[in-house]
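Hello forum,

I keep getting stuck at the same step: I have a sequence, I want structure tokens, and every attempt I make locally crashes halfway through. Rather than fight my setup again tonight, could one of you with a working pipeline run this one for me? It's a single chain of 302 residues.
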Amino acid sequence: MRIMATGLQFPEGPVAMEDGSVLLVEIARQTLSRVTPDGRVEVVAQMPGGPNGAAVGPDGRIYVCNNGGFTWARDAMGTRPVATPDDYKTGSIDIVDPKTGKVERLYERCGGNRLCGPNDIVFDAHGLWFTDLGKRRARDMDRGFVYWAKADGSEIREVIGPITTPNGIGLSPDRRTLYVAETETARLWAWEIEAPGKLRHLPWPSPHGGRLVAGIGGFARFDSLAVAASGNICVAGLHICAVVEIWPDGACVRNHSVPDLMVTNLCFGGRDMRTAYVSMSHAGQLAALDWHEPGLRLAYQR
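Reply #2:
Ran it on my machine without issues. Output:
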């Protein structure tokens, strides 16, 4: 493991770039930032609210899930989100031009329903899939949903829900299976993709039409995920200090230790796609790990 950057303010949503840099969000700083290969951190764009998951879109711009913001606890150990701020209005999908830093809002509603806490995002050839984890308050919390939308802003549809705290989202190598990780249950679910923006739903007793791939015991919470070229799903294990590698049939689950109390996300890049860039959010660090197999190259990753 190599520490690429320190002093980050709750990093998330790493995106490996062709030039060796890594784009990521700093949720507590409310920015999209760039970590250069030599460890410098540059602000690409100011993003009020709570920039979260990020992905390169078909036009080369960066599509960002904005969760609307958190209040924060900061102590000697690090930084962590704790609640919904009093001035919270809505979540959104935003687009950033990485050359100019210009931010545009793409979606903040689906029909009559506002987006509450968009979290993670992945593209296929037809559009973008993203999770909306929702918000938690002192005495209640939102039910979550998953959406599919076109990158030009012309269509958005709800495809899964309600679902408990959907967070990480990814696609199988053949782009025929959609994976979603639930935070509070530490479960990974799968849906067959039948057509652009359309999923096959299993009947009851599946709570939302998904097929359970795996769930792990103990006090574990899942965050975002990335998929390897082999099809294995690598999920950030928030409080178990690990990246959890799960076989597509759920037959094997393996933990890869990462020394942080809030392992939130990872992406693959580097030479031969064998570097896993991991956001260690509690300590505010970005780490690079030599992975044992290549990661899956994403739809618009160069």
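The two ends are 24 Å apart (CA to CA). If your local run keeps crashing, start a new thread with the error log.
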